[in-house]
Amino acid sequence: MAGFIIFLLVLLVFVIIYQIGKSSELASIIRGEEYVKLKTNRTIASLFVVFFILGIYGIWKCNEYFKGMMLPVAACKTGERYDSMFMVTLAVTGVVFFATQAVLFWFAFKYQSSEKRKSSYFFSHSNSLEVIWTTIPAIAMTILVAIGLRNWFEVTAPAPANAMVVEIVGKQFNWLVRYPGKDNELGVRDFRKINDANNVLGLDWSDPHNADDIISATGEMHLVVNRPVKLLIGSRDVIHDVGLPHFRLKMDAVPGISSTLSFTPTITTAEMKTKTGNPDFVYEIACDQLCGSGHYSMRGTIIVETQEEYDAWMAKQPTYYSNNKPTEVKPVAGNTTEKAEPKATEKAMIN
Amino acid sequence: MNNAAITLDGSHLSHPAISNDHHAEEHHAHEHHEQHFVWKYIFSQDHKMISKQFIITGIIWAIIGALFSVFFRLQLGFPDTSFPIMEKMLGEWAKGGKLTPEFYYALVTMHGTILVFFVLTAGLSGTFANLLIPLQIGARDMASPFMNMLSYWFFFLSSVFMLVSLFVETGPASGGWTTYPPLSALKEASKGAGLGMDLWLISMALFVVSSLLGGLNYISTVLNMRTKGMTMTRMPLTVWALLFTAVLGVLSFPVLFSGFVLLIFDRNFGTSFYLSEIFIGGKALSHIGGSAILYQHLFWFLGHPEVYIIMLPGMGMASEILSINSRKPIFGYFAMIISLVGITFLAFVVWAHHMFVTGMSPFLGSVFVLLTLCIAVPSAVKVFNWLTTLWRGNIRYNVQMCFAIGFVSLFISGGLTGIFLGNSALDIHLHDTYFVIAHFHIVMGVSGIFGMFAGIYHWFPKMFGRFLNSTLGYIHFFVTIIGAYLIFWPMHYEGIAGMPRRYYDISSWQSFKQFQPINGFISIVSIIVFAVQLLFVFNFFFSIFRGRKMTTKNPWGATSLEWTTDIHPIHGNWEGDIPEVHRWPYDYKDDGNGGDFIPQTVPLRPGEENHK
Ligand code: HEM
Ligand SMILES: [Cu+2]
Ligand SMILES: [Cu+2]
After folding, report:
1. Domain extents in chain B
2. Residue B479 beta carbon below 6 angstroms from any ligand 1 atom
3. Model confidence, pTM
4. ipTM score here?
């Protein structure tokens, strides 16, 4: 009922505005259509100028407002490159933005029809102008593409041989992180062996490399500062995305396909806490691909620390095997009875 | 060549053969009244009536789609507040006045689908291609009025399925408007992947059929049914733009269709086109060897052209309206056509810029970077030509002119952010953040709809013989443009800060929770903007019956042919012969008698040169 009354009230307001509008149109016929038209013209043209000026002021205000809310400095080398390329692009597009918008609203005001301006200037085309304003954007784009591709190949370059390898696998709705353990090698996994009770990643226990692997289901990833890392990214169910805003990186996690990201963190979590003045600072892993109703809560974290801290932490981690001893199959060193097929994940790596 | 003896029959149900022949004397204007209500208003084959059907259906969808955005903006802006009104309207999906995450995603998905496809594709092209193509090229109707009618009714059927999907128990599709599998393929993955998703796919398949029937018709009409003297280079830019819109649709919708068919197979018949190595709902599925990325290629092969399907009609109409109201020819008519060709061609070869971070080969990515940034060039050319059209004009500010200028402003703002996203090295951080939301809402959502509004204010008199109220129009314009910038400008910052799109709640995120207050602000503005759109809807429907009546045939002083028809044109458009065309459509210059324009039907004066 209340809804209906509100509806009627809104309708009434609309009708009233409409009638006011209509009467002003009628008045215009009495006062002389021409006069009113010019007056409307002047008002609207001036409003455009006001809009432009307030807009510029608004942009400035908006900048002020967001200062201090944005991301801190990039926490890896490619991220620094990213930020500088972003600023270059912002400068180029910013100049174009202000120039074209200013011209648009300036023309809109200047060339309004008025008592003085009663006709237009017949000017239908100019090939030289077209050539100029085709060439200039083309050059600008070439430069941006050149910078972009240089950075792109750098950021997608294969990880250096000494990189530590960490696997991160998405599932609805959390991240599973696996470290290769002492042998420095991740064992084979098979989605058919997954079992939420005691084998979340489907580790194939017939592969000895799995015996010392370490899995964190809390979504916390530990990395060593200044040590290159290669993330092997996968998914158990639907597409997720490993979003690392502080490193200016992201990569999809697609079931059946393995993708990678490699980077070198340069700032530890502790340093970042002092840099940002935020004692709660933490590097976050945000899922960036809609993956279902819990997408927004699919949060992981990264702790970047020194080698010593990392080693100390690592020493305390139990192997996944020790915590989840499978009853059926024991890891067999060397030969295997069950033939482990090479996994698609291994085959389809992009780098 | 010119239409001689092409009859527009096939309309034996509604209207006895209207001959398209120039000299045919058998125009049955008097039989006009004899049509039965059903054939005149419902199963009409008159392109003008079909265009009204499209716009009214489009407006209804627009209200639904926009209302959904208000609901989920309430959640985003005020996650801790309960809104009893939502519970009233949405029932158990908003228990206690708060959306459930599942339904939040369903609303987001429906909002996107409805606005992209039903409003800005069918509602926009359907309305204006139907209205303007025959009227502006001087044809009595479409090449096939019957197919044209089918095009609307397939759209209607598609709408019915989509509407029904809103009411099924597990809710409508909730995997985003792009409906990526496996999320959309597996019933275990989300509630919305159940019956809602099946209905979504059926609806969209029907939609593709509608869009193809329409598109083929528009193309053949433009190519074959132009009146005498209407060479291709004498067509208004609206017709050019609508032609390329149809070309884009006809060449890319079938690919989407095949993508959907494969998805239907994966969902129901056990195939593995998109599925491989999945463990979900407590068990490992038997699917092996498919690729989830394949779907994205098929989807974006339409998806990118689709954004230009939305943009081009607005570009055409804005060109026309800017020129008419500057009382000046459009600047660089041929450059405008060439840039349309460029955009149309490039639109087919940039799709993978939506997929830079899918794990695609970096080399392939770099090719798409290059092609994508090429598109910025013809886009820039268009902007410069619009600006120069205003230069030294004699500008009249009716409502449609305001919207056309707003269109240009928004197109610039949104196009420039495309340059960030098109560069994979920058997209790797910006992808799927609010920066993308800001980009495409400004460039496609708002700019596209500004083009549509401009068109509506401009051609409403042609459709209904009355004017929209302009006071309401000015209010509508200024509140909408200010609101649009207030809503979307701050989202760029959120995106640069890495805030992901499609997050139901950000309160648990250390890096993003500081944006909660600004989200509240955005939500408030969006409610105001929504209210003003209702004001427009009111204006639209009220003016159909109560608007100021049109008293002259050509109220805006335009040169093109649609304004030579009667105030209430008959089915067949011109009572007598179809007018002959003698000049290009942009002769806004002294006509020698104190007028400032020369209609296309006026023969060249002695010594006057044809525009080249
Ligand atoms: C200068 C020209 C443009 C360039 C270079 C460009 C580039 C891009 C890129 C690279 C993306 C993908 C971003 C991402 O998901 O990470 C994107 C998204 C998008 N663009 Fe553009 N764009 C341009 C103009 C347009 C126009 C004119 C429209 C619409 C008429 C448009 C509509 C969209 C839409 C709808 C999306 C997002 C789709 C989604 O993920 O839901 N863009 N644009
Ligand atoms: Cu997710
Ligand atoms: Cu695109």
Report:
1. 44-275+284-564
2. no
3. 0.91
4. 0.90
